[in-house]
Structures are given as C-alpha cells and as structure tokens.
Design a protein that fits this description.
Its main location: membrane. With 531 residues, this protein is mainly α. Helices cover 78% and strands 1% of the residues. Strands 1-2 form a two-stranded antiparallel sheet.
Length: 531
Amino acid sequence: MDFATLAAQLNTGAILPEGIVILTLMLVIVGDLIVGRTASSRWTPSVAIGGLLAAVVALYYQWDAADPIAFLGSFNGDSLSVLFRGIIALSAVITVLMSVSYINQSGTAVAEFLSILLTATIGGMFLSGADELVMIFVSLETLSIASYLLTGYTKRDPRSNEASLKYLLIGASSSAIFLYGLSLLYGLSGGETTLSRIAANIAETGSLQSLGLVIALVFAIAGIAFKIAAVPFHQWTPDVYEGAPTPVVAFLSVGSKTAGFALAIRLLVTAFPLLTDEWHLVMTVLAILSLILGNVVALAQTSMKRLLAYSSIGQAGFVMIGLVINSDAGYASLLFYLFSYLFMNLGAFIGVILFSLRTGTDQISEYAGLYQKDPLLTLCLSICLLSLGGIPPLVGFFGKIYLFWAGWQAGAYGLVLLGLVTSVISIYYYIRVVKMMVVKEPHEMSESVKNYPPITWDLPGLRSLQVGLVMTVIVTSLAGILSNPLFTLANNAVMQTPMLELSLTASKETMTTQVAKAAALRQLNNVDLRG
C-alpha cells in the first residue's frame, strides 16, 4: 500500500476538531511549564476557550462531509457525530468560564485543571464518532479517567477525595463489565471489531439466538447506563455531585452524559440491529425507573448539588424517551433536548457556584430571601431552574414538547404520560427553590443572605462567570421561541446519517410486514367464517 492510498484511507481531516483541541491542550501544558503557575493562570483559560471555539467552527465546516469515514473505519464523522461533538465542546467552553474563579479560590493550579478538562473533552468527542471496538473503549477510558481526576482535583477537600474514590471504584467495575460485553461481540462476530461488520457477521453465522449475544447486549447497556446515570446504575451520582468541584459536576452532567448517549445510539443501532426490540425494552425500563426515582427522590433533597444530581437522573429518563421510540423525530428531539439541557443546566450550576463563592454553602434553605440582596442572580437562576422544569416559553418546555410529541406519534403513550406526570413533580421541587429565593420576607432571610457580601464583578475570575451566566440565560430564554431552526438542524443530522436511516427503514419495513400479515390473517378468518 503506497502512502497516497494510506493517507486517503486514514482521512485525518475528519478529526480536525479533535486535533485543534489536542494542540490547545499541548499549548496549555507547555505554556504553563514555561511561564509558571501564577502567570499562566491569567491567559490559559482564554487559550482553552479559543481552542474549543475553533474546534466548534471546524465542526461547522465538516457538516454533511462527503467522506466522513476515517482511520480505516474506526471513526465516523457523520452529521450525527458532528452535533454530539459540538455539544461536548460547547459544554467544555462554559465549564472553563465557570471554573476560573472556583479553582483560584481552592488554591489549586488552573492550567492543570484545564489540561485534564481538555483531555476529557477529547475523549468525549472521539467517543461520539467511534465506530470500532478498540476506538470505543480507548475513548471511553480517556473520558472516564480524566473525569476521576477532575472529581478529586481539590485534593485538600475530604469530600472531593471520597467522591473521586467512589467514582473510580464504581466506574472501574462498569468499564470491566462493558469491556466483557465488547469481548463477547468480538468473539461472536469471528474476530471483527468494526461495528457494521460485527452485525453482518453475527447475522451470517446465525448467532442471533446465542445466549452470548444477549449477555453482550446486557453488559453493553450496563456500561452505557452508568455513563448516562440511569437507574439502577445511578448510585455514584449523588455522592459525586455533592463532593466534586461544582464546575466538574457541571461538565459531567452535560458533556459526559452527551458522550454516553452518542455511544448508546451508535453501538446499539449499528451492532445490535437484530436485537432492536430487546434493547428497546431494556432502555424503556431504564427510562421509567430514571423518571420515577430521579424526580421523586429530588423532592426530599436539602442540598442544591444533590437536587441537581437527582434532577440529572430524571433528565436522563426524559432523553431516553427519544432513544427508545426509534423514529426520526425521536432522535431529532433527543438531540434538541441535549442542546437545550446544555445551557439551562450549566446556567443553573453557574448560579450555584456564584452563591457558594459568596456564602460558602449550597444548602437550599440558605437561599431564603436572596432576591433582596442579589436580584440579578435570583432572576438568572430562576430562569434556568424553571426551564429545567419545562415552564413555557423557555427552551426546556419546547424540548420536552418535542420529546413527548415524538413519543406520542410513535405510540409510546404510557411513557409520554409518565413523562408528563414526572415533569409536574419536577416543577414542584424547582419552584420550591425559586419560592425560597423570591417569596421570603426580609425578616425571613437566612444567615448566609444576611451576611451576603457586596456585589462586585471586578474580582479575578468573576468576569468569566458573568459572561457564562448571561450567555446561558439568553440562550435558555430565546432558544425556545426560536427553536424551529435548531430542531430542523437536529432533524437534518438524523436524516443525513446513513446508520439511522438504515435502522429506521428496516423498522418501517418490519412494521409494514406485520401489518400485511395481520391483514392477511383477518382476511383468512373472514373466509373461514363465511365457509
């Protein structure tokens, strides 16, 4: 094989966005080593944000690429992966904005934190386009190991150390189970690692009824469910969210979850097309459990970070509605809701960070009367929380409407009704926080609010928090009203992805066949009755 042929098959241009992030990572590390910790903390956040935004621009130019396959089939840069990678990169941008003042106050190095965050971003972006078993596992572990390090980054905090250890132990077990499922796929397919070839070989060898294939499916779903924090694989979520640095929690709730859903779609749709009904059933059960437990248990929380942790579990249940209904509208509404969740959830976390920086607490009771001292923070945090609950005309309302509409069109009536009921429950605990901030009289203020420091934005790092808060609130407020272009973008991503089109076509053909068989049976019964 000559060099030109090899270069054409590698098609390295497909990973240009990831290459930009890698170069940014190297620049941050080398620059920190050259100029020192104190000097680098002033410019490395800007470099990281610039590199991530450049990666988003590169993704824009890769939309609907003529040849998205790269590295001999290991990576697929199709339109679906472009959208997922864009969401992950944007979540990293906002995480950098919210992390500067927090990390400076903790007394740790900003450049090292940014290096680990960029590494996690690279892992998530590669995972979104991984189309081969080795690429999937390496990308997943890159994201996971970096997440463990981020969780325990404030090493002087015992809660952060405990959260990191729990996350590491449970995550390592989950990775081992997931890897065992991939190894079963490798063996059943006769030694293939590319997902499409695995499905073809399993179909040819007649391994469809094999117990090993069912075990592989169960183990793969277990690994995916851990990454998206779905019940019953959610046990790590509340403790990690409460103990980890708040910017890290924000990234895990959006970036890591988005990568998990990208993996779920690509792996389940491509490698298990003959077990579609089975994985739909399992994911439906996980969605039901996540909706119920996440939203019900959130009612009893007294900490904002734990409330947002159980909220994240419930939100995973909403997103899974788009995954299990197996329609183009379902996948498009999933993408749109993840984009909406990016801004409204990270906006809520920025509000929590600002309050904790000024008061040193994240207890919900300590928010009492905040409107009297900080009306801007109260307004922004209220908008983000109400959007998470699905209050119109905010973007969260339209995200849920699209999900429920797609589910209703697909006949998932029970799942949609459960989603509506749990949405009402979620509105209660979100409004409880808003009520605590707004309705309390001056004499009912908490001690933290009474001792609230003078509001100023000229402290180091607070300017970036202000930019992040304003940006997320603007998008949360306006993206719902202007949602049609965003939903069209998500729908185009689904329609331009051959993997999903093949799956949807096969599903429609199966449904047509079943309808034809039912009609034939009815006709045959009528003939017998006349006879």
